[in-house]
Structures are given as structure tokens and as C-alpha cells.
Amino acid sequence: MFELVHQSTKSAARVGRIHTPHGIIETPNFVPVATNAAIKAVDAHTLAEVGIQLMFCNTYHLLVHPGADVVQAAGGLHTFMQRNAPIITDSGGFQVFSLAYGSVHSELKSKGTKKHDGCVLKISEEGALFRSYRDGTPIMLTPESSVQAQKALGADIIIPLDELPPYHIGPQALLQSFNRTHRWQERSLIEHKANTANQIMYAVVHGGTDPALRAQSCAILRKLPFDGFSIGGSLGKTRDEMAQVVAATTPHLPAPFPRHLLGIGDLPSIQACIPFGIDTFDSSYPTKCARHGILLTAQGPLNITSSRWKHVHEPVSTAPLCRHYSAAYLHHLFKAHELAAYTLATIHNLDYMMQLMNDYREKILQNQI
Amino acid sequence: MFELVHQSTKSAARVGRIHTPHGIIETPNFVPVATNAAIKAVDAHTLAEVGIQLMFCNTYHLLVHPGADVVQAAGGLHTFMQRNAPIITDSGGFQVFSLAYGSVHSELKSKGTKKHDGCVLKISEEGALFRSYRDGTPIMLTPESSVQAQKALGADIIIPLDELPPYHIGPQALLQSFNRTHRWQERSLIEHKANTANQIMYAVVHGGTDPALRAQSCAILRKLPFDGFSIGGSLGKTRDEMAQVVAATTPHLPAPFPRHLLGIGDLPSIQACIPFGIDTFDSSYPTKCARHGILLTAQGPLNITSSRWKHVHEPVSTAPLCRHYSAAYLHHLFKAHELAAYTLATIHNLDYMMQLMNDYREKILQNQI
């Protein structure tokens, strides 16, 4: 499934190709997030020309609406959202545990004292029981049910259910969570292997910010027949801590398997982690930026809502669709709160990410990274 | 400019062609509203395949942002918004007088007792002075400045400044307003004729719901060298009253000139007014409906947010772009509040309107209307 095209002589960076039933993903690559089976403000056909090679959908959101059964009856995510290219789904665990413990951000602010247990009813060895935020329906997420849901959704790459411990946790509780997360992943893998259905499954490396635990997690997971590895769990408070975690993890992962960094995709983090041999990055960063009028460019981020663009009658972008419009028009659309602004800016940022990752691949091929 | 293709033998309905520097408008036709030089949720290139023949932009909004000077420096509205087909602008007066008197709706609710004078500083023979809702800048709108603004915007069809009297007005005040509105239109026409700049100007017929005043307005305006006629002012409280006003007006308009009904474009009103010889209708009705999940179809309006569409995995639309997606997916996008829902539904409704108007033209050609 993973074809190593080139290993840089300068760092652990590498160029590869992930083969999936819906096409090839050239790596390193960026993976935009289409939470509800839709990139915000852009439909799949309009986005096609940008050439997104892998797209990330969130199982939790799709379980809540429209339900995995609806997507399955549609013929799976590819048919449902009209995307004829690779898709990856997560287990749904991240959102459930974020609800239970709060986001890392809110947790850091409250130093772990604030409880967010409104929607999560129970977490046990079996799995997590939570309430749908839409209609209050109780939904049980177990390793088996998460994999079954991901089978119904039909993405090319799926992820086992893991437990995400809160950031503020004692060593004893962390070790318990660490052990459970590996048990859950093994259960997920067994469920997956019973009917692989043309899907591949990435393990999720845990161990928080402790290099020894990260190494141990890799040792446990590489013994199991996973098709690739993602790096999850707590990655620390800062970008430096995150980079240290990644640096301490990738050397313990087998080279012939793809490596995904979960939920990280801002530009400095991508730059920091490619030399450690990360192949794919998912993040809502470029699409979220776009909706705030921040356009990513080779000269750095540009705020199109700034009045300096009001009179600039040349295009600001070379991206599909967006290249037809002047900076002044895009500026005007943002100031007038026109929804087309979000569409055009999102296409620009995703096109930029695709170009950026292509540049990284070129540089690695030339051993410049 | 107006080519009468066929006059129905059954009614005053007619099929025509309006020739403009940016192409031909086949009539009867529907004119979508792109208030801020943008159809809400759809950029001009994405909309191109739908084949909108005439689009309506609002001078008032464009004066406030980005300013007529910015649009002029861009090369005019067509270049600014990247629309290579006819555009019509209004004078800006409607919005200013709505601010002064409140909308007809709020006026009817308050029976004329509520005052909305927050933004309008002064209305005199010279014109109307109002404050920008964005930054409080005072803006003077006179017949001359409105035409100058519309010259800067560069639409194919422009409209003279008229005074809109409030609905609850005594006969004496109505007559004063009636006389002033015609003086303002003549001043607008003089300003326009000083430099037509490839634009044509439609008069605005006034007279409220009084058939005699409507006839008198037509008599005044048809003596002036306008290129077409629009029907404005108060059209009454109900659709029946509106139809009566239109019926009492069009017989007094010269046949070889195009006739536009201002701000009316819901489906029953179009059906009611085509037999009176209306050629074009502008309205935000289909685009507003779309954003609420109401899809217009030959079988009547359809609410895509209804759960009956959750499991319908066939396309709901034959419109460009929208036809690729199932009803279930479109339903899901609305329920998940995804912005792409508004884009797809808007394209569907505008495509439906174009088909509907084409059907009307066919029926008139066959003297069925």
C-alpha cells in the first residue's frame, strides 16, 4: 500500500505514494477536513480541480447526522459526497473525549478543574456512551461499533477507537489509559480484519509527551497487522513539545508504512514535522483561516479584509475559480459578508496547500530537506 | 433596443428581445438580485452555466461598499463581478426611502405610526441625505448623483431616482410626491442623456393604487425619451391589488418599449402579470427561498430540510452542479448547516426560474397565454 519513492539523505523526510482503491496519495501531503462530508463552503465538484488527494471526514459528526446507515445506503461516503478520490475517517473517539474532558485549550485554561461531562454518559472498558447533541439519543461508541460505522461510511483509510486521556492526568491514570487505548485498538483491528472491505487501518500511537511511553506504544502497535500509523494522544502544550513528541516517535515506526499526524496542519508544524518522516497531516487550519479572510501565500498569510486590498484590481490568487476575481472584489465580498467570499478563499487556501506540499516533495527528492 | 418577437393573440403577453451591449435578454424573463454585486452564495463563474440573462444590482449597497469609485476603477460592474452579460442597477432611492418610512411590511403592521428616520437625515427637492449604515458617512443622493453613480457602476440598464411615498399618506401629500418623483426622473434623464455611455434608462411609473394617477404617470413619462418603463411605487397590500395596478398601467405604455416590474418575482405574481405584458421581473424570492431550503419545482415548492428527503439517494435537481448530488446529501448539508447547501439550492432555484421563463415564452409564442 505504501510505496517509498525516495528517502532523503539529509533527514528522515521521505517521498512516497499511498495506494488506495480510490487512487494514489503522494506524500508528504496535506489532508483537508470535511467534517460533515463537506469541505465548508465548497462542494466536491467545484473543488475537484484543486486536486485534493486525501480528505478527512469525522465519524462522530456523521454518526449524529445523517447516520452511518444513510451514508451506507447512499453507497458510502464517496458516492454520498461525490468524491472520486481517497477519504480517511477517524474513530469518533476524539470528539467524544473532547466532550468528556473539554478541549486541550479549555483544559489548559482551567488547569483541569473544569468538567465537561454534559454529553458523555459513561466511559468504561466496553466503550463510551454519549448523547447526540442533536436530539439527545444515546449513542454507544465501542471499538467494534466505531469500526462498523467506518465500514458503513466506506472510507479508504480508517482509524481504530482510542482513548484520549485528559492533559492533566496523574501517571497512574495515564498508564491505565495507555493500556486501555492499546486494548481498544487491538479490538478495533480484529473487527476490521473480519472484513477488511478494501479499507486499510492506521494504528494510533499514544504515550503523551513521554518519549519512553511513545516508544513503548510503537513497539506494541507495530507487532499488530496495522497498515499504517498515526500519531495521536496529547502532543503537549506548544509546537516545540509537539515536534519533540514526533521526533521521539517516528524512529520507532517501521519505514515501509505510511505515517499520519492527527489534527496538526498549520504551516510551521508541517515544516517542523516533515523532516521527522511524517507523510500526511490533517487539519482544518487552512479552511478555517479562509473563512476569516486569511489567505495563505508564499509570502506569508495575507488578510484580504484589510483596506489595503480595496483598490487592488488584479487577481490575488492563481487558484481555480478564485483566479478570476480581483483582490478588490474578494475584499468587497468579505466586507459585505457575502458567502461566495468563503468559497473563493477556501479554494485559494486549499490550492495553496496542494502547491506547498508539492514543493516539499520536490525538495525532499533533491535532498534539500 | 426592444425587439417585439410575438404579441399573443390571447392576452397582452408578448415575447421580445432586449438588445444591450452585453448581450440579449429574451423576455419575459426573471432577473435575480445580486445586491452587493454577488448572488448570495454563488460566484459569477459558477453561475455562468445557468444562463442568467439579466442581473439586478443595488446602487445603494454598492455606494456604501465598496463605493462607486472602486467599481469604476475596476472597469465597472461587469469586470468587478466577472459577469459578461447584461446588468441592471436601481437608483438607490428604494433603500433610502425604506429607511425613512420603513418597509411596506413594517409600515402596514404599525399602520404608519412607526418612524424609521435613524439613517435618513433630510429629504428635500434637491434629494435625500442619509448616513452610511457602515461608518456613518453622510451620503447625498440626488437625481444627478444617482445617475453619476450608476454611470460609474456601468450597468447596461439604469433607473432614475424616484421618490417613494409611504403607503399611509394623504391624497395631498401623495400628489406632491407624485409630482416630485416625475421632476426627479426628468432631472435623472437629463443627467443620463448628457453622456449615455452605452446605457439605457427605464422610467419608473408611479401613482400608487390609483388607476387615474398611474395613467397620468404613464402619460408624463412616455413623452420623455426613456428607453423602457418600470413599474414602481406602492403596488398595494395584496397580490390582487398589485395585479390590478399592473393591469391599469401597461395599457398606457407604448408597446415598442420593454416593461419591468420592480421587486416582484414570486411565482404567482409572475403568472398573474405576464398576461398584462410585463417583460422582466426582479426579485430576491428564489435566492432567499433557496437559503431556507425551499426548492422550486414544477410540482410546487419542496422543503429539502424535511426528513422525507433523508433517505432519497437520487438527485433532486437537473440544475448545473446541483444535479450531481442526491436529495439525501442536500438534506444533510442543510441539517448540518453547511454553506455548500446554500450554493447548491440557489443554483437549483435560479435554474428553475430560467426554465420556467423559457416555458412562458414558449406558451406565449403558441398564444396559450
Detailed description of the structure:
2 copies of one chain form a homodimer. By secondary structure, chain A is an alpha/beta fold. Chain A has one domain (2-283): TIM Barrel. The first copy, chain A, is 39% helix and 17% strand. Chain A has 14 helices and 16 strands. In chain A, the strands form 5 sheets. Chain A has a 6-stranded parallel sheet. The first copy, chain A, has a 3-stranded antiparallel sheet with strand order 1-2-3. In chain A, helix 10 (239-249) links the parallel strand 12 and strand 13. In chain A, helix 12 (285-291) runs antiparallel to helix 14. Chain A is globular, with a radius of gyration of 20 Å. The two termini of chain A are 24 Å apart. The model of chain A has no long low-confidence stretch (mean pLDDT 93). The A-B interface holds A 36-46, 61, 65-66, 70, 73-75, 80-82, 310-311, 313, 321, 324-326, 328-329, 331-333, 335-336, 338-340, 342-344 and B 36-46, 61, 65-66, 70, 73-75, 80-82, 310-311, 313, 321, 324-326, 328-329, 331-333, 335-336, 338-340, 342-344.
Short description:
Two copies of one chain form a homodimer. Chain A is an alpha/beta fold.
Q: What order do the helices and strands of chain A follow? A: EEEEHEHHHEHHEEEHEHEHEHEHEHEEHH
DSSP strand tally of chain A: 16
CATH superfamily of chain A: Queuine tRNA-ribosyltransferase-like
Largest interface, counted with CB-CB under 8 A? Answer: A-B, 41 and 41 residues
Radius of gyration of chain A: 20 Å
Most strands sheet of chain A:
6 strands, parallel
State the low-pLDDT regions of chain A, or none. Answer: none
CATH architecture of chain A: Alpha-Beta Barrel
Total of domains of chain A = 1
Which oligomeric state applies?
A: homodimer
Query: If helices are DSSP runs of H or I spanning 4 or more residues, what is the number of helices of chain A?
Result: 14
* Helical fraction of chain A: 25-40%
Name the shape of chain A in a single word: globular
Q: Strand sequence of the main sheet of chain A, in spatial order?
A: 4-14-13-12-11-10
Helix/strand/pairing category of chain A: alpha/beta
Instruction: Give the N-terminus to C-terminus distance of chain A in angstroms.
Output: 24 Å
Percentage of residues in DSSP E strands of chain A: 15-25%
Q: Tell me, what is the CATH class of chain A? A: Alpha Beta
The CATH topology of chain A is TIM Barrel
